[in-house]
Write a structure and sequence with these properties.
The complex is a heterodimer of chains A (about 140) and B (about 375). Chain A has about 140 residues and is of the alpha/beta class. Chain A has one domain: Nonspecific Lipid-transfer Protein, Chain A (2-Layer Sandwich), CATH 3.30.1050.10. In chain A, strands 4-3-2-5-6 form a five-stranded mixed β-sheet. A two-stranded parallel ribbon of chain A has the order 1-7. In chain A, strand 3 and strand 4 form a beta hairpin. Chain A is globular, with a radius of gyration of 14 Å. Chain B has two domains: about 170 residues, Rossmann fold, CATH 3.40.50.1970; about 200 residues, Dehydroquinate synthase-like, alpha domain. In chain B, about 50% of the residues lie in helices and about 10% in strands. In chain B, the strands form two sheets. In chain B, strands 1-8-5-4-2-3 form a six-stranded parallel β-sheet, sandwiched between helices. In chain B, strands 6-7 form a two-stranded antiparallel ribbon. In chain B, strand 4, helix 4 and strand 5 form a beta-alpha-beta unit. Chain B starts with 7 loop residues before the first strand and ends in a 6-residue tail after the last helix. The chains are: A alpha/beta (about 140), B alpha/beta (about 375). At the A-B interface, helix 2, helix 4, helix 5 and helix 6 of A face loops of B.
């Protein structure tokens, strides 16, 4: 069954994919750091925040966030809905997206630059999820927090 | 959406005269002891004098410059207050000049954090000229920087779009006395840039033609430049080839041979071009198993004998083998030479470093840990890659 993108169920599905991916676990074995993935929306709707706690190849926690101010993760990656879709569907290399400022990254960049394979494998895991793509305007309503 | 970046490239005989047209008040030359020994820095200073620009020389760049060297150069720049910075030398000097320039403009930045995602606001204090004295690095035409973390014994493949030099001066007179071994090593670097730039996942219509032309020039002229350093025509074409390859891969990135080569160089201190050139045939065989078409193109450009689609990689690997032999270059790590015991001691570190190398991102096929280990094993033994 397909899962709506940017929903709590979707980020939990990604957590499950990561935790059963040997490639991800291997490439991220030295990684320590949690993330906000921020999906900005058209029409003035508030952005969607997804949280992931990634620790030594394991995704320890993942959920859609109702109150973004309650957490202060080490990294924040922000992009419009359409850009995220391209990344998840592997039509846009996320590193290339960051270089072109189509995705904006806040946090210690050195750590990200030293973990290119972990980033690639994480995106690879996204593609394994049977994702349902609502229109950008519909995303907030589709969230099942 | 993607950009194509290029400096103003001044090439050919007397290209160095471009310096006489500069306007400015103070130049700072970043170079090494070898360039100084050859008095190439004096040639640059004389041209600058004609433009009425005084200059100071920092000749302390070591091969594979470390972060502390970059900080020292930036401190000297801060004292000299240049409005022109000139990188003069091989890749190490050009990369050190780029990184030190960034620190001169932005002392708050950690050189290891130079990255293509941030905007640094360069050119408030100075602009950059790159003058290569080897034919290989291509750094004169790219925004890439390779520095070494001496503590971690690891090469850092960094870069920022703003670090693209304003002017690249590609004067063949500066490579006339390049020794044969350096000619071969650096020439293989140019070739690896061109081949990986053509096969990278970030390849594009603008970089493709440059990479193909550079491959052709290297195969045509590198053996001549190696066997007869006085062959002016070969020297000039090789110097152009390196800049053209730089322009190509600078806009499409490199790949797996660079990730492995950086790991090798940082541990064994193998010259960069020799390291990446040695890894190249193995990585071609590995990548071609899932993406053979681009190697067919390369084989066609080189007029190699290929009867069927998908055979280009094998023909290219064979041609590389012949080229390596003609250049007296090692075809395996064992030929470096490196003992089995030493290889096994270094292997875990090389694996860890290659896995963290940002050049992996643009390889069409990214190896997992075991595959990377097998690639290093094949490169050590000179064994064909069949996985």
């Amino acid at each position: 069954m397909s899962i709506p993108f940017a929903s709590d169920a979707w980020i939990k599905a990604l957590q499950a994919e990561l935790n059963q991916s040997q490639s991800y676990q291997e490439s991220a074995r030295n990684w320590e750091g949690d993330f906000y993935f921020v999906i900005t929306l058209e029409g003035g709707a508030p952005p969607v925040y997804l949280y992931m706690d990634l620790w030594h190849g394991e995704c320890r926690d993942a959920y859609a966030v109702e109150n973004p101010g309650a957490l202060s993760p080490e990294f924040v990656i922000e992009a419009p809905f359409a850009t995220w879709r391209k990344v998840v569907e592997k039509k846009l290399d996320p590193i290339q997206g960051l270089v072109m400022h189509r995705l904006k990254l806040k946090g210690p960049l050195i750590k990200v630059l030293q973990a290119p394979m972990a980033a690639m494998n994480l995106v690879q895991c996204c593609t394994h999820i049977d994702t349902e793509w609502p229109s950008a305007e519909m995303v907030p309503a589709g969230l099942a927090v | 959406m993607w950009y194509f970046n290029s400096p103003q490239i001044v090439f050919g005989e007397d290209a160095l005269c471009r310096l006489e047209e500069l306007h400015g008040r103070q130049a700072f030359i970043v170079t090494d002891a070898n360039v100084q020994h050859l008095k190439l820095d004096q040639r640059v200073q004389q041209r600058l004098e004609r433009a009425g620009i005084p200059s100071v020389v920092y000749a302390g760049v070591e091969p594979d410059p470390c972060l502390d060297t970059v900080r020292s150069i930036a401190a000297a720049m801060t004292e000299a207050k240049p409005d022109w910075i000139i990188g003069l030398g091989g890749g190490s000097c050009l990369d050190a000049a780029k990184a030190a320039w960034l620190l001169y403009e932005r002392p708050d930045v950690d050189p290891a954090a130079i990255n293509p995602f941030d905007t640094f606001g360069l050119r408030a204090k100075a602009r950059l000229i790159a003058i290569p004295t080897t034919s290989g690095t291509g750094s004169e035409a790219t925004w890439a920087v390779v520095l070494t973390s001496c503590e971690e014994q690891r090469k850092l493949a960094l870069g920022a779009r703003e670090l693209l030099p304003d002017i690249a001066i590609v004067d063949p007179a500066l490579v006339a006395s390049l020794p044969p071994a350096v000619t071969a090593d650096t020439g293989l670097d140019a070739l690896t840039h061109a081949i990986e730039g053509y096969t990278s996942t970030w390849r594009n219509d603008f970089s493709d033609g440059l990479c193909l032309k550079a491959v052709q020039l290297v195969f045509d002229y590198l053996p001549r430049a190696f066997h007869n350093g006085g062959d002016v025509e070969a020297r000039e074409h090789m110097h152009n080839a390196a800049a053209i390859a730089g322009l190509g891969f600078g806009n499409s990135m490199t790949g797996l041979a660079h990730a492995m080569g950086h790991a090798l160089g940082a541990r064994l201190h193998t010259p960069h071009g020799r390291a990446v050139g040695l890894c190249l045939p193995y990585t071609i065989a590995f990548v071609a198993r899932i993406e053979p078409d681009r190697y067919d193109d390369l084989a066609r450009v080189l007029r190699l004998n290929v009867d069927e689609a998908g055979q280009g990689a094998a023909a290219l690997i064979a041609a590389l083998g012949r080229l390596q032999q003609a250049l007296c270059e090692p075809a395996s790590l064992a030929e470096l030479p490196l003992t089995r015991q030493s290889f096994e001691e270094h292997l875990p570190h090389m694996l860890a470093n290659a896995e963290c190398d940002s050049d992996l991102v643009t390889s069409p096929r990214v190896p997992d840990h075991d595959q990377l280990q097998r690639l290093f094993e094949c490169a050590f033994e000179g064994k064909p890659v069949d996985f």
